[in-house]
Each structure stands twice: as structure tokens, then as C-alpha cells.
Amino acid sequence: MNIKYLQKMQTTNTISNIYNEGMTEAEIRDLEMQVGLTFPQAYKEFLYIGGRVANMLAASDNAVVDGEWKEMMEIAQEELSEKEIKLNNAFWVFSSYEPEQFLFYYFDEGENPPVYRYDDGNIQQVNNSFSDFINDTIDYRKTNGY
Question: Is residue 39 included in any domain, yes or no?
């Protein structure tokens, strides 16, 4: 896969003795088929480089393999429903800390979409692009650890 957006992730294979472990392009296509949507290019690159283990995210935060993504999405949707928040666009939770805290992007915001944080009823944009989020998180983890 040609890496256009996540060069820093590609060249930062390890942080605090945690190595990126990616998915194959075929596995990414299979995941898209399960989801029924096409991922933005920046997220495909993320999966390709670190879809199984992403060294800048805590292990429990990134759960796309083995169907754990379904549970993350269900929990997020339940949380939004409980707070009576309706998101009009298709979204993808790519990292979850607690049921009331998760990071996501909207599918209709381009190949390198902004990243949003949901935190107990509040939604705010945290980065202008997925690649900015990943780069900032890499820098933070390299400096501060986990």
C-alpha cells in the first residue's frame, strides 16, 4: 500500500517496546465488506501499518480485529442513544476508553477526515485530520509514554 498520510506512523515502528502490527490489504477489504462502507485512505493506512497493534494507542483502545469493532460501535451507539444524541452521518469509532469516551470520524469528510471526541454527552473536534491526530499521539507517546 502506498502511504500518503501516515508517513510518521510508518517510520515509527516502535514506542516503549510496543511494535506496530498491521493488517493485510485483503483483511482491510474484508473489514470494509463487514462494515458495509469504504474507509477513508488515511484510516486504511492506519490499519495497514497498525490495525492489529498500534503503538501510539493503548492496547484496549484499538480493537478492529476479531470483530471487537462491533462491540465498540454498539457501545458508542448505546451511549449516544442514552444521551439522546443523533449523529446524522455514518461514523466510525476507532478508539474507545470507556463507554462514555471515544474517538471517531465521519465517513463523509474526505480521505483524511477530522477526528472528534465524544466525552459523556459532548462532542468536539480534536484534530483537523486523522493524520494530525496520529502524528500528535505518536509525539505525545514518545515523550510521555502511556
Answer: yes
